[in-house]
Amino acid sequence: MSAESIEFEHMDLIDFAVKQGNGVNGLSKLGLKSIPHRYILPPEERLNQNQVVLEDSIPIIDVSNWGDPEAAALICEAAAKWGFFQIINHGVPLEVLEDVLEAGHKFFELPNEERRKYLKENSPTPTVQLKTGFSPLAEKVFEWKDYLVHHYVPHNVSSDLWPSVSKDQVLEYLKWAKPVIKKLVEVLLQGLNVKEFDESQESQLIDRTTISLIHYPMCPSPELACGARRHSDISSITILLQDDVGGLYVKGTTADQWIHVSPVKGALAVNIGDILQIVSNDRYKSIEHQVIVNGRRNRVSVPIFVSPAADTVVGPFPQSLENGKKPIYKHVIYSDYLNYFLSKRDDRNQTIEFAKI
């Protein structure tokens, strides 16, 4: 371990990164030759390049015509086999995508005294909050990322208090992305023989919307760290916009194989969340994924997580149990599911076991 790292280990890492709001961004700017010990992944969790399957890639689906049965079939097939796919020609203008990515860079380029205004204890509204890692006060290993999370509430003026450097771009992206998300969920439900996407099902699946600007700063020891540890999403569905740096890997169809989700200009990556796996009774797959970091470039991604309301009861849809199929999952309250996920701390990739019968 280098002298710089040893010296930093004697500082209060939690105070510097979390309480003072410097985050990983602040660590990256210190010129460390290696990362603090709390950011070093155990060897068994590090991505081994021998496990990366180069000849495989997740599907890229043209959705320029949402009424095309072939496109719908490809979406449902990808959701069942891979749990991940990318969509192109989705209708969100390229300028809107580029603007929100640039807004992410601009926010994290702000001086620390400006960024820390959005820490939990300082934020002018609970609908926006600056965080670092996932849960650094609870986890043994920290993630090499900072993120600004926005809880979107329609017709709520609290968004006026979001950071001026990124607020308009985030809201504009949400305006364009929400109809895409609704279309995706409609297609996936039709694949389960749900004929109409009514208000009750909409509430059950896409009631809550959270959008984050995630910043993965350059890392002096990228082979030892991670931007996001292996996990599946507890959302219904997640839509991810990523820049051209790359680093997102999804689990392949064979054990211990990983596939890089190569950035495609203008594309949106879609991944099935736990809730769609539950309501589909395992027809659709919520797949483990992880993010590695870069030693030369900062990376920004913008995920939109769409989830049920906290008090929603989630379980297999009746259509998923037709033809005598037995339920794999019990009915659970979404807030209980979320709390179980948060309680897992260092092992968040098996949350779905909580809902199994």
UniProtKB/TrEMBL annotation:
One of its GO terms (molecular function) is 2-oxoglutarate-dependent dioxygenase activity. It comes from the Eukaryota. Transmembrane segments: none annotated. One of its GO terms (biological process) is coumarin biosynthetic process. Residues 207-308 form the Fe2OG dioxygenase domain. The keyword Lyase does not apply. It holds the Pfam family 2OG-FeII_Oxy. SUPFAM superfamilies: Clavaminate synthase-like (SSF51197). Keywords: Iron, Metal-binding, Oxidoreductase. InterPro entries: DIOX_N, IPNS-like_FE2OG_OXY, IPNS-like_sf, Oxoglu/Fe-dep_dioxygenase_dom. Belongs to the iron/ascorbate-dependent oxidoreductase family. This is Feruloyl CoA ortho-hydroxylase F6H1-3. It comes from Coffea arabica.
